């Protein structure tokens, strides 16, 4: 079976998916575009909605990072069979994405004064969400659903994204989050991938 994941050469919304694929020892083509060269017209025009990421499997194409991550989870033992448990994990993932939306609003703010204010707001949002994520992880044995799932990978990907763009190690004061990051980095497939991965740099905005 041929598989291909296409995104930019940043962690962003897709690093969690890369982690899951490596965790499951799934062979795939990891296609990365240089953010500074985007858009590439012929590539953008070929995409279902003109956006990355996309995941391809034997000629089938799936867009939207949450949909891709959930599907990959179903193929790597990271999605429970119980529908209620699935829904709880969906909620956890959407909570993480709510925080990421707030980060995006800050990151793309071009007015210096508004950007400074947005950063202060984001810092408060991080405390709000991280404290709740940490509490939920502690209450469930270190994972959102009581055992390792795709929602845990999504959180770790988000934490690493925020660390990179905020130039900080934000999970330091949240022991359950920090433990989860260490746990996922310790899985053999992920560990090998991270050891070979080039350090990420935030793309320069024009």
TrEMBL record:
<dbReference type="InterPro" id="IPR040079">
    <property type="entry name" value="Glutathione_S-Trfase"/>
</dbReference>
<dbReference type="InterPro" id="IPR050213">
    <property type="entry name" value="GST_superfamily"/>
</dbReference>
<dbReference type="Pfam" id="PF14497">
    <property type="entry name" value="GST_C_3"/>
</dbReference>
<feature type="domain" description="GST N-terminal">
    <location>
        <begin position="1"/>
        <end position="80"/>
    </location>
</feature>
<dbReference type="InterPro" id="IPR036282">
    <property type="entry name" value="Glutathione-S-Trfase_C_sf"/>
</dbReference>
<dbReference type="InterPro" id="IPR010987">
    <property type="entry name" value="Glutathione-S-Trfase_C-like"/>
</dbReference>
<comment type="subunit">
    <text>Homodimer.</text>
</comment>
<dbReference type="InterPro" id="IPR036249">
    <property type="entry name" value="Thioredoxin-like_sf"/>
</dbReference>
<protein>
    <recommendedName>
        <fullName>glutathione transferase</fullName>
        <ecNumber>2.5.1.18</ecNumber>
    </recommendedName>
</protein>
<feature type="domain" description="GST C-terminal">
    <location>
        <begin position="82"/>
        <end position="203"/>
    </location>
</feature>
<comment type="similarity">
    <text>Belongs to the GST superfamily. Sigma family.</text>
</comment>
<dbReference type="GO" id="GO:0004364">
    <property type="term" value="F:glutathione transferase activity"/>
</dbReference>
<dbReference type="Pfam" id="PF02798">
    <property type="entry name" value="GST_N"/>
</dbReference>
<keyword id="KW-0808">Transferase</keyword>
<dbReference type="InterPro" id="IPR004045">
    <property type="entry name" value="Glutathione_S-Trfase_N"/>
</dbReference>
<dbReference type="InterPro" id="IPR004046">
    <property type="entry name" value="GST_C"/>
</dbReference>
<dbReference type="GO" id="GO:0006749">
    <property type="term" value="P:glutathione metabolic process"/>
</dbReference>
């Amino acid at each position: 079976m041929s598989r291909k994941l296409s995104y930019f050469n940043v962690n962003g919304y897709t690093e969690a998916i890369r982690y899951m694929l490596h965790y499951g020892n799934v062979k795939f083509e990891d296609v990365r575009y240089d953010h500074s060269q985007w858009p590439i017209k012929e590539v953008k025009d070929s995409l279902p909605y003109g956006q990355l990421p996309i995941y391809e499997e034997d000629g089938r194409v799936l867009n939207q990072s949450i949909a891709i991550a959930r599907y990959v989870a179903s193929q790597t033992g990271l999605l429970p069979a119980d529908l209620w448990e699935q829904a709880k994990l969906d909620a956890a993932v959407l909570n993480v994405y709510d925080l990421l939306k707030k980060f995006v609003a800050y990151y793309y703010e071009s007015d210096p004064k508004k950007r400074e204010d947005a950063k202060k707001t984001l810092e408060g949002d991080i405390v709000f969400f991280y404290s709740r994520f940490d509490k939920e992880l502690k209450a469930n044995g270190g994972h959102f659903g009581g055992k390792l799932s795709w929602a845990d990978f999504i959180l770790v990907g988000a934490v690493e994204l925020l660390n990179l763009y905020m130039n900080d190690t934000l999970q330091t004061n949240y022991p359950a989050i920090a433990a989860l990051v260490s746990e996922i980095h310790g899985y053999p497939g992920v560990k090998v991938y991270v050891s070979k991965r080039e350090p990420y740099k935030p793309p320069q905005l024009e």
